[in-house]
Specification:
alpha+beta; six-stranded mixed beta sheet; five-stranded mixed beta sheet; globular
Length: 424
Amino acid sequence: MSGHRIDVAKTSGGIPVVVETIPGSQSAGYMIGVATGSRDEHPEIFGLSHLLEHTVFRETKTRDSYQMAKEIEGAGGELNAFTGREMTAFYGITIKETADVAMDIVGDIVANPMINDKDTELEKKIVLQELNMIKNEPETYIHDLFESQLWRGHPLCQDEGGDESIVEGLTSSDLRAYYDEKYRIPNLAVYAVGAVDQDATVSWAEKTLDGMSDGNRNPRSPPKAPESSYKFVKNDADHYQIAMGFPSYGASHEDRMAVSMLSAVLGSGTSSRLFQSVREEKALVYSVYSSVSQCSDASSMTTYMSCTGPNVVESMETTAAQFGKLLKEGLEKGELERAKRLVKGANVRAMESTDNRLYRLGVNHMLNGRAETLEERLARIDAVTEDDLMRVAEDILRPGRLNTVVLGKGNKKVRDYDPAGPAF
């Protein structure tokens, strides 16, 4: 993994091209990112970014979806895409000797989609099934519910999938208008990872994308720190899902890594405070973990749990007590170093995958305009001190900003729970 580098250039049209060359890599990955997502949609088109991401795979000026599948798989690769709150991205990964196939198809999808009535209606059926599926996967659905509750009243509350009733009414004309407005410079960026060459990547980006000019960046404003809230959402699953979290900092904030370390101390791994106190000592939950969901101008630090109905309230109160204990007593000896090694290990393992490297490179650059090597990220982890973590904990772990969402069948005690209950 050592010896690789990240080079940043621009096409003649001004498109950023970020290339991470990895000596000895046997694969090549290429991604085109578009700086638009669910937070950039107005209520009448909620879900359009996601539907468009699906539909452009159906047909281009030169290929249909079956031809794309045959070409990419014949090149030993795969195509995929994702829609987030702040970006949409399309990528292809192949073995190094067929890298030109990945470039060609990914560029074709972004630059030359047909977006016709037939393809839109077909893909709409698939997206509606996906949205329904998510609601039937409580451990996934709770994440969407929490972010929507935390950022209520702000565009960040709009989850990536959209609203089924609105998606159902979208047309190919809606998609084409959105594409013509958003899929333009300066919203485009290109990323490449693995056995890739900077000059070849810039040349491809120029040839494929430089004609897509005359766009404008989406106007965005950061959310205000939300006040504490409690929300119960009824679900037929026997197991309850709980999310308890706080607003935190944007992607460029100097304390972003300290927040990640705080999250790790609280709920990463089986030695974490929450796993030991909520699961091991009291057997209240089946799973418990903490994570940070990052956006450009805000983030959330959240603990997720799953348990049976009788354990919901005690699980929340035990978790809140751990927040308070950290604030009152500080860190245990060696606790931060253990969390650092855990997070560093997860980063190192993830970066052994071209897919993960490409995803991280694109998302991090799109959120904060920086390209960071693994070594730089590990150094930032090492630089976090106990004072840093405790300063951040005092700023973030505030009862007045604790937001909680519970998803499950419900009982009176859970439905009517007082959000002031888990004081810390």
